[in-house]
Amino acid sequence: MAEELNTNYEDSQIQVLEGLEAVRKRPGMYIGTTSEKGLHHLVYEIVDNSIDEALAGACDKILVEIHTDGSVSVTDNGRGIPSGIHPEKGIPTLEVVYTKLHAGGKFGGGGYKIAGGLHGVGASVVNALSEWVEIENFHGGKRCTERFERGKVARPFFEEEDPENRHGVYVRFKPDPEIFTETTVFSYDIILKRMREQAFLNAGVRIILRDLRTDPVREDDLCYAGGICSYVEYINESHALTPVHPQVIYISGSKNDILAEVAMQYNDSYNENIVSFANNMSTIDGGTHVEGFRSAMLRSINKYAKKLNMQKASDPALSQKDVTEGLCAIISVKLTDAQFESQTKAKLGNSEVRTLVSGIVSEKFEEFLEEHPTEARMIIDKILSAAVAREAARKARESARKKSGLEHSTLPGKLADCQSKDASLTELYLVEGDSAGGSAKDGRDSRFQAILPLRGKVLNVEKSRVDKVYGNQSLTPIIQALGCGIGDSFDPEKLRYGKIIIMADADVDGSHIQILLLTFFYRHMRKLIEDGHIYLAMPPLYRVTDGGKRQRYAFSDAERDAIIAEFGGGSRIKADRYKGLGEMNPDQLFETTMDPQTRTIKQVNCDDALACDQIFSICMGDKVEPRRAFIEENARFAENLDI
Asked: Residues 54, 195: one domain?
């Protein structure tokens, strides 16, 4: 939402609330982590300042460039930073913004009515965590420059007349390797996702991203006149989903300086995809705006279905999950006094937002249903189908409970359980095949390692509703062993193992089993992934021997060749390729793949839920062409894999 351009943006409006060494000592308090995620957060903080200018109606173009020296620059055509001496601090206002915590025009000083950078730490935190920062600022007919190194002034503030009377800010920074010890290399694709998101959320604002490290220069020019409606269309298209109704439903309304926008469209999947924002910040944990949306949707659907007698008295009552099955929705709210749970802004807490969103969605969604009866029936039919499937799943779950003790104390017969009951210590190996399962049982440390051999074909849950999961001979024993249930009955507190490790052969079939199990966990037990419980075992591909006592294990062709060279080469060197886990002796399997002292396991995470959802939808869905295109586009990442 843009307000009228505030031309009275003066030095006195930059308020100070204050220290910078603390940021370098405890960077995680301000950017969450110093890993790759935290590194890219620096870019977002600077871009968010430009976006705040767009929200104020003062900026419509933002240029983000990744430079060859590893630095990033952000240029906007906003108002620039006031260029005089700050009346309270007695130093240039530009310097105040970049060296003082909680300094900015977002604390009621009149600089911004709506802002994502609510806490006023963005610019100063980036400065504190950068090897250097350079600023070129245009405001009020002045050109101002300054350079900082690790948060301190390195080249003093300089001001001169600007005959061209330009406006805006150029900020260039290089992350400090003393802080970001894991990596200081920016990912174009990670930044692109965020920039595209911001372009969708701010209709008409043009964001250009360039990578000057590549030849030719890679560039994306992002501008979406359709705003969040275009965002819904993009998600459905990129996830290879077919809309149930042709029109994206757009709803908006405002009250007391709060603006709410919703765009939504049902598709042919069984999964909900609700993405929410507050002041352009992604609220990954939802909040009051999402709560208001969900309650309004359920209320409106129930009202319309009953009005048309589409729901019989004998039909199961609709639930919120029925209403959101196959729904792609973007919820965006913008407000003056946004209350977030933390600096990371993961969840919105304003109660008045719940009331506003619930009211406008109820009113305008019901209007849409009344005015578009054909589309309304398509939507209601899909929702009623979801309710029938949910009831079928309940009956299947009850039947499975009676037959196999599902979700009760009974454990699957093939489970070789461990002695410890402390979930913080225990591990469950899901092992491909009885042969490998036998080796794993004999080789494991039974004090804390449990083994469950997989039976039969693992169900592709992407193509199946939850009622098909119960009774599947591969998935039911997993649900029993874990003890935490799935779907509505999922309770992570009942999880029996701290680590769930998928151990499959290092070949195509093994990779297929891995992805089928990951799809199951992502769709029905996602919190296990989010909380870091799911791992992939990394069995070796080769055993290299020198004809004597020396032997080494290789996990790739390159490692095999290096070991052969280390052993001196020649005909006495043998590199035996394992065809499967079952070929290993128990002691070999334990040493290479299961011993915590020597093994390598990969933790599965889903930091980007939308990207994960896209990959599962494309790779495990019904449509062949999008899957082929995805494989062709990403084949380069498999060049070094021997499968």
From this structure: yes
Give catalytic status of residue 366 as yes or no. no
- At 119 the pLDDT is 39
User: Residue 425: its pLDDT value, please?
Assistant: 95
φ and ψ at 536, to 5 degrees?
-115, 130
Helix (H) or strand (E) holding 356: helix 351-371
pTM, two decimal places: 0.80
Q: Are residues 524 and 563 in the same domain?
A: no
Domains contained in the chain, number: 4
Give the DSSP letter of residue 146.
Answer: E
- As a whole number, the mean pLDDT across the chain is 87
Same domain? 216 vs 316: no
Instruction: Output the pLDDT for position 113.
Output: 56
Catalytic residue among 88, 268, 507, 559: 507
Cα 560 to Cα 366, 566, 568, 576, distances in angstroms: 65, 10, 13, 10
277 and 343 belong to one structural domain: yes
Residues 288 and 333 in one domain: yes
- Shared domain for 320 and 415, answered yes or no, is no
Candidate list 11, 76, 197, 505, residue with the active-site label = 505
C-alpha dist (Å) from residue 248 to 156, 304, 362, 379, 603: 52, 19, 16, 12, 38
Backbone angles phi, psi at 142, to 5 degrees: -115, 150
Residue 509 is among the residues annotated as catalytic for this protein: yes
pLDDT in tens, 101-138: 866 555 444 555 555 544 346 899 999 999 999 999 99
Catalytic residue, chosen from 176, 197, 407, 432, is: 432
Does 254 lie in the same domain as 141? Answer: no
pLDDT digits (tens, 9 = 90+) for 442-463: 999 999 999 999 987 888 888 8
Q: What CATH number is associated with residue 244? A: 3.30.230.10
Of 257, 509, 531, 576, the active-site residue reads 509
Distance CA 91, CA 608 (A): 41
Active site residue 608: no
Q: What pLDDT does 406 receive?
A: 52
Per-residue model confidence (pLDDT) at position 319: 92
**The domain that contains 473 carries what CATH number?**
3.40.50.670
DSSP state of 457: P
pLDDT at site 473: 84
Q: What is the mean pLDDT of residues 292-303?
A: 96
Q: Are residues 554 and 499 in the same domain?
A: no
Give the DSSP letter string of 395-415: HHHHHHHHHH-TTSS---TT-
* pLDDT of 253 over the 80 cut: yes
Active site residue 442: no
